[in-house]
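Forwarding the complex inputs:
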Amino acid sequence: MRAIITILLVAALASVPLWLRDPYLLNALITTGIFVIGAMSLNLLLGFTGQLSLGHIAFFGIGAYVSALTSLGFDVGLPGDLRLVHAPWPPIAGFVLAILVAGLCGCFVGLLSFRVRGAYFVIVTISFAEVVRLVALNWVELTQGPLALTNIPSIALPLPGFGEMTLRTKMHNYYLVLVVALIAYLLIARLVHSHFGRAMRGLMENETLAVSVGIDVTRTLTIAAVISAAIAGAAGSLYAHYIRIIDPEVFAFINTVTMVIMVISGGKGSLAGPVVGGLIFGLLPVALRPVMAPEAQWIAYGGVLMAILFVLPRGIVPSLAQRFSRRRSNAPALAPVALTETGAKEPA
Amino acid sequence: MSEFLQHLVNMLVLGGTYALLGIGLTLIFGIMNVVNFTHGVLYTFGAYIMFIVVQQLGLNFFLALPVAVLAGWLLGAAIELTLLRPLRGSDIDTTMLVMIGAWIAMQSGALWIWGGVAKSVTTPFPEAPLVLGPVSVSWLRLFVLAAAALLILVTYLLINRTSLGRAMRATFQDHDTAALMGVNVDMIYTSTFAIGSSLAAAAGALLGPVYVIFPQMGDLAAVKAFAIVILGGLGNITGAVIGGFILALAEELGAGYVSSGYRDAMGFLIIIAVLIFKPTGLFARAERVG
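Prediction (whole assembly, two chains):
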């Protein structure tokens, strides 16, 4: 039953560019899809390990910059009269490098910041993102600073026997984003249901207990951070090659907040949560645009965030799933519902 | 050497307002355990109150400061009563996200009302700076330092010499026991948030005329306040004052000797370094890991 629904949903998503002819809406769907990938990666940390990382946009932005610089090439001076010169590589190499470098940064940040918990973890992660933003803004030789990296090439897929296929149109990019999002979803789903996933959720529910049964907390959290950062880096790379211009504003804190809103509203700790929340909040500005001034939209954004936390603190998907399973009382409640309830509590 | 002395003088002026920001946040963070993302908005709010009173109403510059303090107090109390009181007992992440929502809504509100164009405030002080040997400092900045010092002193006396302050300190140590001893903890929370907010508004009203006033000015101020609180330790007022001056010194030296582009990175680097190497803060007793 669930498999049929899933296949139908994917087919419905895949059919969108065939009947949707409005380029503005298609563009909104592509950028929303990219942010949904980011939100899914954030959910891996926030929903399944309980760590609220408010610096997640750093990995997205690092992925975007790595991918853009790999495909554009650069020539920068290093201390001691050294020069680092890089000739442009194909964008697909940038995509792979973006994943690797973002994952590496996730490892570094994770090892350093998982020494503290709660509010302090949040503040450390924000600080990392801001330091990265300031570097992107000030290292003009590499990043062009506020002048932005422009003319980033579109991703070209090598097709054996046919040469290359450059993904330039919106339709191409839509399918690219959809495929990457599906891979990310399946990867996260597989991970969460593995032995490792149980270790993650175990330490979210009760860290002391998890340690006592032999779960290596720092190792588990760091691996989760690496995977999460790598997926965010992939999303950033897609963003860079789709928008084709990147400036330090990509690191703006509001972008992290957008991802957090997507996860929280959809339901943290639920696989479908970030997708549902992401589609709602990604497309909300499109719906509000004709009726509201941009500033008023942001006021509404903040208001909706507060309202969701007051009315549906566990998110849309878990609340609906619980209602659904209550109606059919023979079906057991979905596991993530119970998990988010206990996981929300701070260990004393 | 004279350049270094000039940096020290600038540090004193900046440090005073940073200390105000830090004290406000450390009270809220320490006593209420709320990660207050609206702190920066209150800073912006104070600066705009200054702008309204001086530029739009044409009233006295020195009257504007108490008005800003009062307005910050009222707005803080309103935020506490409407957003935080209903969430009492929910986990720290939920309140943090609600505060983020409030911050986005209020900052966008400021952008809507006053627009994105930076505003400046005319001050009654002479243009020519006070020159003392190798260093010079503007009269406005001297006034800012004096006013900040006065506000810090008042807050210190309020916390340490009044019964409200004693109740606040008791709530910080153990709010259950404080409640059993007859302290109205709800009232203490509202007062704490209002006092902290009024200090942030005061800092904004003081620094607004020194720089320019725009809706996003509070974002960096909030980060600096967090850096100061982490440096000084949770709920530690003396720590916040010292932390304010350390941050100001780091920024001055960073801007003077490294690169002015990285001035604002100092706060973040301090946060990262302190939390990694000495997570209890430089002067704190409280345990913060776990």
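Chain B has a mean pLDDT of 87.
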